[in-house]
Amino acid sequence: MLSFNTNEDFTQNYKFLIGSILPRPIAVVTTKNDNGTDNIAPFSFFNGFSAKPMIVGFAPIRRPNTGDKKDTLINIEREKEFVINFVTEKNADLINLCATELPYGESELTLSGLTAVESEKVKAIRLQESPIHFECKLRDIISYGDTPGAGTLITGEVIRIHIDESIYENGRVITSQWHPMGRGAGNDWFKTDSVVEKTRLTKAQIQK
Ligand SMILES: Cc1cc2nc3c(=O)[nH]c(=O)nc-3n(C[C@H](O)[C@H](O)[C@H](O)COP(=O)(O)O)c2cc1C
Predict the structure, then answer these.
(1) Distance 195 CA to ligand 1 centre (A)
(2) pTM of the model
(3) What is the pLDDT of residue 204?
C-alpha cells in the first residue's frame, strides 16, 4: 500500500476526496443573485444530516486560483435561503452547463435553458426539470478557511418539499423511477440503474 500525508497543496487532497468518496449525490442549488437573477450550481459534497429537524448540507470550496468565494456562498450569506434540486439522467446535461463559471449576476438559467418554477416559502426558484425540490432556510455556515480549495459547509433546514406524483407512492419515493445520477472523479458521473438489495439481520436472528 502507498501512504500519504495530507498535503499543503490542496489538489492532491482534493483528488483523494473525489476519487474515494463515490458515488457522490449531487445538490443542484438555486439562489438569488443581488440583481434578482437566478444562480444555479451543482455541488457533490452534499448529503442529509438530520430527519427532524430536516437538515441537508453541501460545501462550495474556494476557487482554485484566487481563493474567492463561489457565487452560491455569496448569495446564501446574504439571502439566508436556497433550494436544492436533483439530477436525473434526463436533466444531467443541462445541469452540467450550470457548472460554468459565469461572471457574478449572470444567470445559468439563461445559459442552460432550464425552466424556473416559483417557490412557496423562499425567493430562490425551483427547477421544473427536477422531480424533487427542497426549499431550505440557512442553518449553519462553517468556514474551513479562505485559501484555494478551502471548503465552507452550508447546512439548511428543509421547510417545504415538492415531489412529482409519478415517483411517490404509499409514503415512499420510488427511487427506481426518477433515475438519479451521482458524481465521480474528474468528469465522471454515475447512473444508478444497477441496484442490489441486501436485507439486514434482525436482533431476533442474532440472539438465536
Ligand atoms: C456534478 C458537479 C458537482 C460539483 N460539486 C462541487 C462541489 O461539491 N463543490 C464545489 O465547490 N464545486 C463543485 N462543482 C463545481 C461548481 O458547480 C462550479 O464551480 C460552479 O460554477 C459554482 O457556481 P457558483 O459560483 O454560481 O456558486 C461541481 C460541478 C459539477 C459539474
Answers:
(1) 27
(2) 0.97
(3) 83
